[in-house]
Design goal:
Blueprint (H helix, E strand, L loop, with lengths): L13 E2 L8 H5 L5 E13 L5 E4 L7 H5 L14 H4 L1 E4 L4 E7 L11 E8 L6 E5 L12 E10 L4 E9 L5 E10 L4 E8 L9 E7 L3 E11 L12 H8 L5 E4 L3 H4 L22 E2 L5 E2 L5 H10 L3 E6 L3 E2 L3 E2 L7 H15 L5 H8 L10 E4 L11 H15 L4 E4 L10 E8 L1 H6 L13 E9 L8 H16 L4 E6 L3 E3 L12 E3 L4 E3 L1 H11 L4 E8 L5 E8 L4 E8 L5 E8 L8 E7 L18 E5 L5 E6 L3 E8 L2
Parallel strand pairs: 1-33, 2-31, 3-14, 3-24, 14-17, 17-20, 20-21, 21-22, 22-23, 23-24, 25-26
Antiparallel strand pairs: 2-28, 4-7, 5-6, 6-13, 7-12, 8-11, 8-13, 9-10, 9-12, 15-16, 18-19, 26-27, 28-29, 29-30, 30-35, 31-34, 32-33, 32-35
Helix pairs in contact: 7-8, 7-9, 11-12
Bound molecules: alpha-L-arabinofuranose (AHR).
Amino acid sequence: MMRFNGTAKIVCVVMAGLAMAGRAQQAESSAAPATLTIDASKTVGKVSPTLYGLMTEEINYSYEGGIYGELVQNGTFVQAWGDATWIVTPRGTAHGSTALDKATGPSAALPTSLKVTVTQADAANSLGLLNEGWWGITVRPNETFHGSLYAKADYAGAELKVSLIANDTGHVIASATVPGVGADWRQYTFTLQAGAVVASSRNHLLVEFNHPGAVWLQLFSLFPPTYHDRVNGNRGDIMELLAAMQPAFLRLPGGNYLEGDHINERFDWKKTIGPLVDRPGHRSPWNYWSTDGMGLLEYLEWCEDLHMQPVLAVYAGYSLKQEFVAPGPALEPYVQDALDEIEYVTGDVTTKWGAERAKDGHPAPFPLTYVEIGNEDQFDQSKSYDGRYAQFYDAIKKSYPALQVIATAPVKSRTPDVLDEHYYRRAEQFFADVHHYDATDRNGPKIFVGEWATREGTPATNFGAALGDAAWMTGMERNSDVIVMASYAPLFVNVNPGGMQWRSDLIGYDAFSSYGSPSYYAQAMFANHIGTEIVASELNGAGDRLFYSVTRDAAKGVVYLKLVNASSSAQQLKISLDGVTSVKPDAKLITLSAATTAETNSITDPRRVTPVESIVGGVGKEFTRTVPGYSIEVLEISVQ
Ligand code: AHR
């Protein structure tokens, strides 16, 4: 049974057969019958067990304001956001102001802080600082929130009060006092316990001071319950959506986010590990700040939680504004950084970086098969990638001969193990190119379709995009002997105004809830129903709007037939299933369909287009299937 976070329309109907001559489905059909001949005894290739996975980066508020559980916006008081995110809110006669203090902070990584100068306040007249979170702060009944901050004060006995407040009523949902703030920087923790509230994201955080004097704040943090109760962990609803896709891998940390606009804005992994107070954060190329609370170890734990293997992209000396590091001695520190990173991921505790990982709380090494050198290096106008790739390749192969080294652009200096190719297209382009990999050289590098998407619909994709995606996936499945991995991008979008930098994304959310686009459901359907072998098949007479793939799992005794009808008309298909002894007449059918290509899901209507599951009868060695117009179908046929 597919797992769809409990959100899919699953309707089980036993139909009287698939051979529908003279019945309604045939009456809808306007196209002539086509024939699909399958020989399940003939394997034409192995399906890659890692075909379907995920690609992630900080874009569209994917982490902060997205999957990463942190509720406080701008908790590290980055200057540009200081005024907008921490709003001074005096009560009664209270008076005061805030300013970024560049002279003091709790660590070398966070050398600045927010100085709160309270000129007048008392118990009844507090000076407040209001933080709206990421377009709201969700509170559900009886939830416990764990908070922390670094603080110091210029007077003895300073204290502050932290509360969650309902925007509409001013009702105090939960509050806690942080007493005894001293003269030196120290971390303080607190807990906020909600009662029997109505679940809502229309809440904010309020930090109050009731005594004149100066207090400095840094690294203000508040976490709700997280997936698997991870400290510094992820949002449960989004993790559930991902889990339902059964992804085999996570390509991290980008994308452009790996490269940064400038070399000093790259994903500098060593600055993303260890205590949060030791992470300086950095500007992402998508034009907002990242605290790097989602750092390398958090990515790896995300992999662990969803049983994915990491596909580790290492910075390769090229950043988006055409800054590059020439191959040779200048590149050596970056190569060493990549080797250290691999050791952090895979080394045991006796290694320098494996020990560092253990110190960070994860003694067990992570599995790693693939390392990717850079991202989209075809855009490097200096044409230095060939040389840079060779230098990384040689060093990695020397220390880790078993690792597969992915190139992001064609190179001549070495034969890459895998080549990463990206496709952002309209549905029509995918329809026209579904045979793209049919003739790919099977003796060359394997292929990683590391970013791909049909870009139709916004913020998340619509059903027309799902058709383009599904058609493209049939092509990838038929060629999954050479395509080792594929990952859609971008994965996430925060649907609030200003939350999106890249339209047409897979999963949308706000502070309160999340939803899958039709593309999401198409992917989950495909990934949850895939065999281990590609079997011989031939389609004739179907026109150019019907796409399909057939795979088989011999151990399970199942043939998976995927049918994508991108036409508005139904298509009748005469199917011959040869090379099997017997076929169970009842098969599982999962259908994703819509009346128009514009139909979609949204934050307010999240389940308009979702898969419907049924049992169909009449399946056999010869049967007819009428594929409805605008539909994506998976037929799971039991065979012997
Ligand atoms: O997915 C959005 C961006 O598209 C990625 O960051 C980049 O690799 C590609 O150009």
